[in-house]
Design a protein that fits this description.
With 252 residues, the chain is of the alpha/beta class. Helices cover 21% and strands 29% of the residues. The protein is built from seven helices and 14 strands. Strands 1, 2, 3, 4, 5, 11, 12, 13 and 14 form a nine-stranded mixed sheet that branches. The protein is globular and about 50 Å long. The N and C termini lie far apart (57 Å).
Length: 252
């Protein structure tokens, strides 16, 4: 059966209410914007998202967030999205903040079939001890806090147990993909897209350039097609700049 889907809408048609999603992208780089837009158009609700960040107010996952389609987010950085902060502090959104490296390894471990692992990151903080506010009440009190996690000592150093991530679906963006799902990512889009792809039971890849099997040098491939179930050709997409900084005249 071909992995290539004729339209973006068709590729996400079976993502339903309450689905868990591992979503690629780092800041505004490598966001699967076409797949996200298709989900927004379908109006699916109560999504649980695993992603490095949640886009900005009008781009990437921020579009689903603004539409009230996301119930819970596990992320490492959320500082560029005002609507995210508003929903979290008002009790509309459940949030699990986790160290960036831990999030990356949780995704990779899920794809590798590893149920959990020990890491020193977060030991001696609320990350391991518990008490991080996952959800607030409307009055600002904590409705749900993170539980304490198991810790153990190895070689005289304490480590905390972190569970891996396996999502119902993964949404990723690649610069080049072949019809068998082998993917090539562009520069920093490699940060979380390959890991998110590994973590999904059904991984959907939007690709700017679609090629036939054999056209990619095996050494060029960043993610093998065994992790990818669906491929959709979207063509070149708009590239956003998260923070534009310009030099004033005469300041050289």
């Amino acid at each position: 059966m071909s992995k290539v889907y004729e339209s973006v809408a068709e590729s996400v048609a079976d993502i339903g209410d309450g689905s868990t999603l591992a979503v690629g992208g780092f800041g505004l780089c490598g966001n699967p914007t076409e797949l996200i837009d298709a989900l927004a158009a379908r109006g699916v609700k109560s999504l649980e998202v695993y992603s490095n960040n949640c886009g900005v107010d009008d781009w990437g996952l921020g579009i689903l967030l603004a539409a009230g389609q996301i119930r819970r987010v596990t992320a490492s950085y959320v500082g560029e999205n005002k609507e995210f902060a508003r929903q979290y502090l008002s009790g509309e959104l459940e949030v699990e903040l986790t160290p960036q490296g831990t999030l990356a390894e949780r995704m990779r471990a899920g794809g590798a079939g590893i149920p959990a692992f020990f890491t020193p990151a977060g030991v001696g903080t609320p990350v391991s001890d518990g008490g991080l506010p996952w959800r607030y009440n409307a009055d600002g009190s904590v409705a749900l806090a993170s539980p304490p996690k198991e810790t153990r000592v190895f070689g005289g150093q304490r480590y905390v147990l972190e569970e891996s991530i396996v999502a119902d679906f993964a949404l990723v963006h690649a610069q080049i993909g072949d019809t068998e799902g082998n993917l090539v990512f562009n520069k920093t889009a490699m940060n979380f897209n390959p890991l998110a792809a590994m973590a999904g039971r059904i991984t959907i890849a939007e690709v700017e350039q679609l090629v036939e099997p054999g056209e990619l040098d095996p050494e060029q491939i960043h993610l093998p097609g065994v992790f990818v179930k669906r491929v959709v050709h979207t063509g070149e997409q708009e590239k956003r700049i998260e923070k534009r900084t310009v030099r004033t005249e005469g300041n050289r």
